[in-house]
Amino acid sequence: MANIYLPTLKQLQYLVALKDQGHFGRAAETCYVTQSTLSAGIRELETLIGVTLVERTRRVVRFTPLGDQIVAKARRILREAEELGDMARAAGRPLSGEMRMSVIPTIAPFLLPRVLPRLRADYPDLKLYLREEPSAQACEALHSGRADCVLLALPYACGDVTIEPLFDDRLFLAFPTGELPDSVQPVSPLEIDETRLLMLEDGHCLKDHVLAACNRPELRAEATMMGTSLHTIVQMVDNGLGLTMLPEIALTAGILDHTGITARPLGGDNPKRTIALAWRRASPREKDFRLLAEILSSVRDRPI
C-alpha cells in the first residue's frame, strides 16, 4: 500500500493566516514564525497536494479558486482540532483555558467592565481574549472558528448557532437638557424630530434596533447617520447638534456623566433590544458558555 502524506495542522494554519492577512509578513507574525518558515510551509503543502494554492507577486498575494476552497476546508479542520482540546477542558474545571469572545461595540465598553473583574477573581485559569467588532464580522468569526462565542444584541440573524438571551436592554432618547419637556414619562416615537436625530453609521445593528423600535420608516432616510461610536454621538448631542438613542446599559455605565444631556425612556410597542450570548451548535464547551451567560446576566446592574 502506498504511503499517504497528509497536510499538517501547522501547514493549514499558515495557509489560513495568509488568507486572513493577505501578506506573508503579517501572516507570519500572527503565527509567531519567520516569514521564510511560513512561506516554506505553504510551498510544502502545495508540493504535497500537487497544486498551486497561492499566486505570488511582489505586491499582491492572490489565492487560486482551488486555494479558496481549501482555505474554507482548512478552517473547519482547524476548528475541529481545537475542539479536541475544548473537550478535554470541558471535562475538567469550568471556565478554564483559552476562550475567544467577539463583542459588538455598543455592548463592550458598558458591560465588560462589570463582568471581567468577577471572571478574573472566580475563574483565574480562564484566559479570555476579547475582540470588539460589528455583528456581521463577529458572527463570521464565530462560524469560521476565529471566535468561540459572541456577545451581541437581538434581533440579529447570526446563522445556525445556539443563542442564550441574557436580558432586555431598553432604549432611551437622549437630548440636550431643556429641548424636550421635563418628564419621567416615555417619549413617543412620534415626538422625535427626524431632522435632529443622530444615529450610528451603517454596520452597527443598534441603528436597526432604533429604527425598528420607532416604527417610522422615514427615519432611515431623514435621520443624520454620522456617528462612529456612542461616545462620539454623546459629545455631539452635548454640543447641541441633535439628539440620539442610547441603550440602558450605556446610561447605567455613566455615559452621560458630566454632560448637559437628559435621557427619557422610549415609548412604543418594542422599545428595547435583547443582549445575548451565541456559540456554535454542538460545541463541547456548551456548559462553559451557559455558565458565562449566567454570569453576564447577573452583573449587568452592578456599578463599574
TrEMBL record:
It comes from the Bacteria. Coiled coil: none annotated. This is LysR family transcriptional regulator. Pfam families: HTH_1 (PF00126), LysR_substrate (PF03466). Belongs to the LysR transcriptional regulatory family. The keyword DNA-binding applies. The lineage of its organism: Bacteria, Pseudomonadati, Pseudomonadota, Alphaproteobacteria, Sphingomonadales. Residues 7-64 form the HTH lysR-type domain. Keywords: DNA-binding, Transcription, Transcription regulation.
